[in-house]
Design brief:
Strand content: under 5%
Distance between the termini: 71 Å
Number of domains: 1
Largest sheet: none
Number of helices: 2
Radius of gyration: 19 Å
Helix content: 55-70%
């Protein structure tokens, strides 16, 4: 069968999709698989941006300006 033979192929495809490298050596054929790959690529872009924005907002909310107010 032409499908993936082991979990390392799935992990490789997931990593390539999440990082949006998209080498093209493994391509989803079914419509549902393409939709899931698009969703995974979107998550690969949004997740780091959301985490970074959250870290910045926590830092700013802490009020650490680098000066001692004692």
């Amino acid at each position: 069968s032409p499908g993936p033979e082991n979990s390392s192929t799935w992990i490789y495809f997931s990593f390539v999709t999440l990082t949006t490298a998209g080498y093209g050596d493994i391509v989803p054929v079914a419509r549902q698989a393409r939709s899931l790959a698009n969703l995974e690529g979107l998550i690969g872009q949004l997740y780091p941006a959301i985490v970074l924005a959250r870290l910045v907002s926590l830092h700013l909310a802490g009020g650490s300006s680098g000066t001692d107010k004692n």
